[in-house]
Amino acid sequence: MSDVEAYESLESVETVGALMDAPMPIVDRMVIAWARWYTRDLPGTMGEDRLAELESDLFEQRDAADSASGVGRSILGRAIRGIPSDVAWRFSRLRQAAVGAPRGTFPLALPAFAHLATALLLAWGVLVVVRVAGSMGRGEWAGAWDLVAAGVVGLAMALVGAWLVVVLRRRTLGGFWLAAAAYVLIRFGTDALVATSLTLTDFRMTSIGQYLLLVHAATIAGVLFFVAMAMWWAAPRETTDTGRSRA
After folding, report:
1. Exposed site from 59, 145, 147, 150, fewest CB < 10 Å?
2. How many helices (H) and strands (E) would you count in the chain?
C-alpha cells in the first residue's frame, strides 16, 4: 500500500469515527426511542439485536446522504411507514417466546393483563380526581380533605408506577409501586368518588356492609395482582431448550 492509499484509508477511518461520535440528530433519537419502546420486554437479546440493526441502518443512511438536505424527513417518513411492520415484528417475536416458554409462565397473557390492569387503574384515578375537582368547583364537596389528597396522590403514584412498568428492568419496582397506588386509589379513592354523588352516598349509608365488602375485596384483589406481577417479573429468567428466555 502506497503512502497516499494509507493516508486515504486512515482519513476514511477517522471520518467514520467522527460520524459515530457525533451527537445523534433528534429524528434519529425519536426513531431509537420508538424502537426501545416496542422491544422493551422481549426475551433474550431480541431487543438488543433489533436496536443494533436499526442504529447501523441509520448510520449508513446518514453516511450515504453525505449531509444532504431532507435526510431527516426521509428517516422520519420511513419510521412512520414502518410502524405496522414494527408492531408485526414484535408480535412475531412474542409468539416465538410463547411457543418455547415453559408451562405455567404465560409470557404473553400475564404482561397483557398487567398493562390492562394498569390502564384501568389510571382510568379510575382520573375519574376520581375529575369528579372530586368538579364537585369542589361547584361548591358541592361534602367529603373530607384527606380524600382529596388521597385521590391526587394515588393518581400520581399510578402514573409513576405505569412509567416504571414500561421501562425495561424497572418493571418489578413498578409492580410494587402500582400495588401501593391500587391500595390508595381503590380504598380511599372510592370513598372520595362516593362523596361526589348523593346516589352513591345513599347506597353506602343504606348498604354499608355490602359497600365495605365490595371496596375491601376490590382493594385486596388489586394489590395482590400487582404484587404477584412484581414477583413474577422479579423471578430469574429461565432459558428453554430452544435457547429462548422467559419474557
Report:
1. 145
2. 11, 0
CA 114 to chain centre: 10
Separation of alpha carbons 240 and 81, rounded Å: 35
Task: Specify the pTM.
Answer: 0.63
Which single residue is written with the C-alpha cell 409513576? 160
Q: Domain limits of the chain?
A: 3-100, 109-234
**Would you give the distance in Å from CA 99 to the centre of its chain?**
24
The single residue listed with the C-alpha cell 394489590 is 223
**Gap between the Cα atoms of 129 and 13, Å rounded:** 58
How do residues 130-160 score in pLDDT, each as one tens digit? 999 998 888 888 778 888 999 999 999 999 9
Residue written as grid cell 431448550: 241
Q: Which residues contact 55 (CB under 8 A, 6 or more apart)?
A: 32
